[in-house]
Specification:
mainly beta, Immunoglobulin-like, 6-stranded mixed β-sheet, 4-stranded antiparallel β-sheet, 22 strands, about 15% helix, about 35% strand, ubl conjugation, Interleukin-3 receptor subunit alpha, glycoprotein, Ig-like_fold, cell membrane
Length: about 350
Amino acid sequence: MALVWLTVFLTSVSGLLQSEEDPNLPIKNLRMEPGERRLTWDLHGNVPEILCFINSKLITKATDNNHYCQFHVLPLCELKNFTISLTKGPPFLMGIQYPLQEGNPGAAAQRLDCWVHDADFLTCSWEVGREAPSDVQYHLYRQELRLPKQLQILVRGTSHGATIPCVDRSVELSEIERLSSPNITATCNKSYSMMEWKVSSHVNLRFEYELQIQKGSNPAYTEKLQENFFQIHNPGNYMARLKVKGFFRNTWSEWSAPQYFVCDLGEDSQQLNCLLTVLVLLGTLLVLGLAVVLCGRYSVLQKLFPPIPHMKDPITDNLQSSKLVAWEASRASWEDCPVAEVQVLGET
């Protein structure tokens, strides 16, 4: 039984450079169709089930009567080995390398890393290639894949004197999210305390929590939870902190800052609270009493010194109510005035 290995390399012209093929091979002309994201070939005769691999890792099975393998995403920059094999019959293996690489790989961006944080932000970082020219500039691109909440991130370099290869990474947003530890709110009394919290995320819907609690001077203990609340009985005064991760994910957030809750005030504190309440009431009564005194005093002053009524100005008031007539000098004349007869009765 012979093992057939056919290596097919990409070229810049046709995309494929095939070695000499055995005319009796059941599969020929292995090729990549990037636009359709599938690896396809020509069949000669009946063949059993065909398996497709990327870098020796089984990815999927052939579909459409063994005519091609469909991929959700294809690499844009990193060279990978795509191979196919048969499940039955003589050992058979055929492969190609994809995609075509141009330029010096040492000039490409290194250690591309991306993460989602604060629910709404995607941040990516990378390092300059060890062999990159001094004028290299890197540009970040992203495209959404056909699957929901998945992205393909690409960093492409440019230079005036050299061709810079690109680097890419396909990510599922829920896997690269770095969750922030939520804030804890609590309502409590001497009998119980109810703690609640809320995690903000658009890509993870279920979470796991670790809640650490320390009552007074007792040793701290940890509760593993899937709910966003927890109740403790007879809490006293306690400290709590929390960390979170997406369900079925491996990366935990940092511990939240310790939060302290006072649920049992004790006799001294209760007495102090009572005293403060009494002082507040006394202060309120004092303010009301002072207001009453001031209002009464103002009323007495009004009675002792009533306001002076408005005094009438005979001249101004008469002028305001009478009509003024303009005197024309040209019409000035003596007027006859009646004279009453005066009788003199005597002299003194």
